[in-house]
Design a protein that fits this description.
Strand order of the largest sheet: 7-6-5-8-9
Structural class: alpha/beta
CATH architecture of the largest domain: 3-Layer(aba) Sandwich
Helix content: 25-40%
Shape: globular
Oligomer: single chain
CATH class of the largest domain: Alpha Beta
Distance between the termini: 28 Å
Number of helices: 10
CATH superfamily of the largest domain: Aspartate/ornithine carbamoyltransferase
CATH topology of the largest domain: Rossmann fold
Radius of gyration: 19 Å
Strand content: 5-15%
Largest sheet: 5 strands, parallel
């Protein structure tokens, strides 16, 4: 069984193999090539939290590969009647061949993986991990720069609650990136994560100054300030809108620098940035399809052909 609950479930070699598979699957993701590798297989999309890109890209990935999808939300199901996560997963174990789960409680994905026999892919557990997002992020960086080693990646915004940057930061240093962590004082990366990152010998710097970090950046990874994670709305109000990027901010940037964002954006990226060569966030969203195709195939033990045509 090939669960992916955190990035630690994947070796560096496996990550690179999945990225190679993802590149070959781009024509399938676009619908230009028909490749029904997962025909007869069923994916359960288990979403206890709102989602647009993650849920839809998994559904697109499965259907482009010939499989079927069961979409599950906590609204309109027996969760509303008090059914436990364990009991729900036991049911899904009999209905599907593989499951994706997003849940507001950190640790829910591992709990689910321990409860069932089918493979589990973590699509975000509270403020914990989001490894499939990390895979598409790595793919986007590799497609733009051809490498990760030596790049200066600036992670911006909600680094305290942002599960995307928690997973991504660990993966980036495994491949030799430098990290610049930019956040307000109340939303800094958790101390235990920073200690873990630095314990590897990685080059990590922390700042609250976004504009001063732009000239040396190879990648700027913006995140929204997540209102739903704040225990106190007044604390959210203090930091909402603190960091924004527009086309005017790109004048001092390297020509090849890219701006990424896991989306949705709520003001961090001005629409003027969309038409610049730096913008990669919509391509990043598309990249969720081929990378999640590759992860589904890995989870189900299906080999992707060396030549896709």
């Amino acid at each position: 069984m090939s669960d992916v609950v955190t990035m630690d479930d994947l070796s560096n070699e496996e990550i690179l193999s999945i990225l190679d598979d993802s590149k070959r699957l781009i024509p399938v993701a676009r619908g230009d090539v028909h490749l029904p590798l997962l025909e007869g297989k069923v994916l359960a999309n288990m979403f206890y939290e709102n989602s647009t890109r993650t849920r839809m890209s998994f559904e697109t990935a499965m259907k482009r590969l010939g499989g079927s999808v069961l979409n599950f939300t906590s609204v309109g199901t027996s969760v509303a009647k008090g059914e436990t996560l364990y009991d729900t997963m036991q049911m899904i174990d009999g209905y599907a061949d593989i499951a994706v789960i997003r849940h507001p409680r950190q640790g829910a994905a591992q709990y689910s993986a321990d409860a069932v026999d089918i493979p589990i892919l973590n699509a975000g557990d509270g403020a914990g991990n989001h490894p499939t997002q990390t895979m598409l992020d790595l793919f986007t960086i590799m497609e733009a720069h051809g490498k990760i080693q030596g790049l200066n990646v600036v992670l911006v915004g909600d680094l305290r609650y942002g599960r995307t940057v928690h997973s991504l930061s660990h993966a980036l240093i495994r491949f030799g990136a430098r990290l610049t962590l930019v956040s307000p004082e109340t939303l800094t990366m958790p101390d235990e994560i920073v200690r873990d990152l630095r314990s590897t010998g990685a080059e990590i710097s922390e700042s609250s100054d976004l504009s001063g970090s732009i000239p040396d950046a190879d990648v700027i990874y913006m995140t929204r300030i997540q209102k739903e994670r704040f225990p106190d709305e007044d604390e959210y109000t203090k930091v909402a809108g603190i960091y924004t990027l527009g086309s005017k901010d790109m004048h001092g940037a390297k020509d090849e620098m890219i701006v990424m964002h896991p989306l949705p954006r709520v003001g961090e990226l001005h629409p003027s940035l969309d038409s610049t060569p730096h913008a990669r966030y919509f391509q990043q969203a598309f990249n969720g399809v081929p990378t999640r195709m590759a992860l589904l195939c890995r989870g189900l033990g299906v080999t992707i052909p060396k030549e896709v045509k």
